[in-house]
Write a structure and sequence with these properties.
Helix content of chain B: over 70%
Distance between the termini of chain B: 77 Å
Low-confidence stretches of chain A: none
Order of helices and strands of chain A: H
Mean pLDDT of chain B: 90
Structural class of chain A: mainly alpha
CATH architecture of the largest domain in chain B: Orthogonal Bundle
Oligomer: heterodimer
Number of strands of chain A: 0
Largest sheet of chain A: none
Number of helices of chain B: 16
Strand content of chain A: under 5%
Radius of gyration of chain A: 26 Å
Shape of chain A: rod-shaped
Distance between the termini of chain A: 68 Å
Largest interface: A-B, 15 and 13 residues
Largest sheet of chain B: none
CATH topology of the largest domain in chain B: Tetracycline Repressor, domain 2
Order of helices and strands of chain B: HHHHHHHHHHHHHHHH
Shape of chain B: flat
Strand content of chain B: under 5%
Radius of gyration of chain B: 21 Å
Structural class of chain B: mainly alpha
Number of strands of chain B: 0
Mean pLDDT of chain A: 78
CATH class of the largest domain in chain B: Mainly Alpha
CATH superfamily of the largest domain in chain B: UbiA prenyltransferase
Low-confidence stretches of chain B: 1-15, 277-283
Helix content of chain A: 40-55%
Chain lengths: 63, 332
């Protein structure tokens, strides 16, 4: 059983201006996400570099 | 009244539209960064020294971030010049999308971060060379040479030439003669490359008060100097084949490409590039002038040639191909 087809000649209703996302908010959100990704990548890099630099000495410590 | 209107409408230091993260990426001059990454990686691979792949990648990343930081500092300081030139007026600071102070902070923070991380993760020779490169580009070139002398890009070209040395030092912990040979190639490449560009965009530089060679010495003198520098540049490109760095493919590529480079430089010298404006083409991105096609050809080929010779060295070193000296009977 198929869904009834939507009438084709009905134009999509225009989004009211107050419902459109604020470009300043969108830009800030994008900047925050980029900053978060940068910080996470940096933290992971520092961790991996530490492991590589210490090499086998990572395990050579009193337990 | 007119002053008041322009003060209100011009996007000076205030933000004209909200800055997107892409604007901050643009602040780092990604195109310049890609060339720096490429030449830095070539130096790192050509050193043929044992370095952990992750540390090698971190070294290249630090070179890239350092180059981006100096780009941000350049955009902060040169915002007044950039606003007057068609090629650069859309940059984030002159367009008002990012405040000058933000560009400055970003440049300083990324400079410190890239140098410190290079020192801690790789070695301090590479970190010192990276710090010197950032200082040379941001202070010596941008703040001093660029607005003061027609030799700005000749001397300032050292900043763009150092990444292979940094890459080599990162891998080997030293910077031998072959590393400086790579530096010399880029250093000698810079004047013909930039002056060819300046020949067909000198009105922009003139308007902004930047003493580029065509503005100060005239087009004829610039064309002559392009050819002289090309005569010096091409033999230097052949040298790596005789110092144990390049192999037979390198000799072939640098020799054949060098010949084309010299022919194009000769054509520029014989042309009228930079002499008179073509009124039909007024208002385009660059002022296309009589004979400008020759200058544009040299500009485009110079990028291709540098890419080709560094790519050949990169491939030869990666595949462990014998150097040209190894192939000569009785050679090293």
């Amino acid at each position: 059983m198929s869904e009834p087809e939507a009438p084709r000649d009905v134009a999509p209703a225009e989004t009211p201006a107050q419902d459109r996302p604020d470009p300043r908010f969108q830009a800030r959100r994008g900047r925050n996400i980029a900053l978060a990704v940068g910080l996470i990548v940096f933290a992971v890099l520092v961790f991996l570099v530490t492991v590589v630099r210490l090499g086998a000495n990572v395990l050579d410590r009193p337990l | 009244m007119a002053t008041m209107t322009s003060a209100i409408t011009a996007p000076t230091d205030a933000q004209a539209s909200p800055a997107r993260w892409q604007d901050y990426v643009q602040l780092l001059k990604p195109r310049v960064m890609s060339l720096v990454v490429f030449t830095g990686a070539t130096g790192l691979i050509c050193a043929k020294a044992p370095i952990h792949p992750l540390l090698g990648a971190v070294a290249v990343l630090c070179i890239a971030v350092g180059a981006g930081a100096s780009g941000a500092l350049n955009m902060w300081y040169d915002a007044d010049i950039d606003a007057q030139m068609r090629r650069t007026r859309g940059r984030p600071v002159p367009a008002g999308r990012i405040k000058g102070a933000e560009a400055l902070s970003m440049g300083v923070i990324l400079s410190l971060l890239s140098v410190m991380f290079m020192g801690v993760a790789v070695n301090w020779l590479a970190a010192g060379l990276l710090a010197f490169t950032i200082f040379f580009y941001a202070v010596v070139y941008t703040m001093w040479l660029k607005r003061w002398t027609a030799q700005n890009i000749v001397i300032g070209g050292l900043a763009g030439a150092l990444p292979p040395v940094i890459g080599w030092a990162a891998a080997a912990g030293e910077a031998p003669l072959n590393a400086w040979l790579l530096c010399a190639i880029i250093f000698m490449w810079t004047p013909p490359h930039f002056w060819a560009l300046a020949l067909y965009s000198s009105e922009d530089y003139e308007k902004a008060g930047v003493p580029m060679m065509p503005v100060v010495a005239g087009a004829a003198s610039t064309r002559r100097q392009i050819f002289i520098y090309s005569l010096l540049f091409v033999p230097i490109c052949l040298l790596p084949a005789f110092t144990g760095l390049g192999g037979l493919p390198y000799l072939a590529v640098s020799g054949a490409g060098g010949l084309v480079f010299l022919i194009l430089a000769w054509r520029v010298m014989r042309s009228r590039a930079g002499d008179s404006a073509d009124p039909r083409l007024d208002g385009r991105l660059y002022d296309v002038r009589a004979g400008a096609r020759d200058a544009r050809n040299l500009f485009a080929f110079s990028i291709l040639y540098l890419t080709l010779i560094f790519a050949t060295l990169l491939v030869e070193a990666s595949l462990g191909l014998p150097t040209f000296l190894n192939l000569i009977p009785g050679g090293v």
